[in-house]
Amino acid sequence: MRFSRRHSLLVAVVLCASATVVARPTAADSDRGGAGGAPAEEGVSARVARLFEEAAVATQRYEAGREAAEAQKAKTDRLEKLLARERKQIAVLNADLGRIARAQYREGGGVPYTAQMLFAKDPDELMRGQRAAWQADLAVNNAVAKSRRAETRLAEDEAGAATAWRALEEWKTGLSRTKKAIERKLEAAQWTLQGQADEAVAAGACRGAVRLDQPDGGPSSAWVAPVATYELSAGFGSGGERWASRHTGQDFAVPIGTPVRAVGAGRVVKVSCGGAFGIEIVVEHADGYFTQYAHLAAVTVDQGDRVGPGRWIGQSGTTGNSTGPHLHFEVRVTPELGSGVDPVPWLRKHGVKL
């Protein structure tokens, strides 16, 4: 049995894990403000957006590390089975050594050569005895050498498996600490952003658009979901104690500060702060429909701006009559409340499946 290929794979895993440790992200510790003289809330919005990106990268790397650790654990389990088999073979070799030695002694291997010449009946018998003794000696030597080689490989493979496993565990631990540090800073920045939004809503005056760096590249389709990652919560027409009448839109459960996207090309016809919807945006589309994005923590557009599909127009929050962080999304036939249609089939007709 040969372990050289498995051993080289273990070394490769250790080197890969070490390289990843060097490349892992560090927790954000500075705030990127806007241009000179930009208001403070721009810095908070940008920090939230940046920390979201860093948390996503850290999560991806953590998941990659977890998968690598699970794969290494599976390799280690397979190796342990091979090592157990190797130990049994070593035990068999050791037993063979004893058996060969005993057989050699019984068959004359322990009788001096001179005595064998005296007692031999003819030269052929003498030669057969010597040949058997020589073969027994060779078998013993080969068995001893094979046993020693097997024991050496066993020790090397066990050490390699332990080293690879320790490296992966250290990598996962370090990356987990980094991820948690980013998440703590993100949570603090999120609630700072929400506090500023609540102040704006209480004053009934928006603070102006926050200019965030837009994501690289454009969407591959003309229509997109209003947020990239989400869980659907309250749907259109649902009832409950939270609304005086039926729910007028589709809610997307997302954390505070999540980038909110224009679902399609259009023009911003309303940006307001105050009332039941808190901070809200309404966009008019070419087909005559309007989309509303409500309970925001910040806006990144001004009234009259032209937007394309996927353009970041705000950040989610929990302003207005909201029981928790989410995006309230409506599709209307007019810009005003009360003219809504179910957003889910409307988006589906435009090629967006939620």
Structural notes for this entry:
The longest helix has 81 residues, at 123-203. It is built from five helices and ten strands. The protein is rod-shaped and about 120 Å long. The chain is of the alpha+beta class and 354 residues long.
Short recap of the structure:
By secondary structure, the chain is α+β, with helices and mostly antiparallel strands. It has 5 helices and 10 strands; from the N terminus they run ααααββββββββββα. 51% of the residues lie in helices and 14% in strands.
**Can you summarize the main beta sheet?**
10 strands, antiparallel
Rg (C-alpha, Å): 37 Å
Q: Which runs of at least 5 residues are low in confidence (pLDDT < 50)?
A: 1-40
Counting DSSP H or I runs of 4 or more residues, the number of helices is 5
**Considering DSSP H and I runs of 4 or more, what fraction of the residues is helical?**
40-55%
Task: Indicate the overall shape.
Answer: rod-shaped
What is the straight-line distance between the termini?
54 Å
The share of residues in extended strands comes to 5-15%
Task: Name the structural class.
Answer: alpha+beta
Topology of this structure?
Elements: H1 4-23, H2 40-106, H3 113-119, H4 123-203, E1 231-232, E2 250-253, E3 259-261, E4 266-273, E5 279-285, E6 290-299, E7 306-307, E8 312-316, E9 327-332, E10 340-341, H5 343-349
Helix pairs in contact: 1-4, 2-4
